[in-house]
# Entry
Amino acid sequence: MTIKVVRGNPTPEELAAALAVVRARAVAAAATPPGAPATRDSWSDPSRIAAHRLPQPGPAAWGRTYWPS
# Structure
């Protein structure tokens, strides 16, 4: 990886701080394996809705799926 300063004249301390941030981000990105499932909030879990008994078929069944009476 090549990093190039395109504007300004950073001090060695500023350059070291910027490189530390870039390296920390690279390590954090590498720590999560690709294709790992993302964590989900429980409110968006489809099994929360499917755990209940499904409504009887009929003209308004779609509305009762999410708004049980």
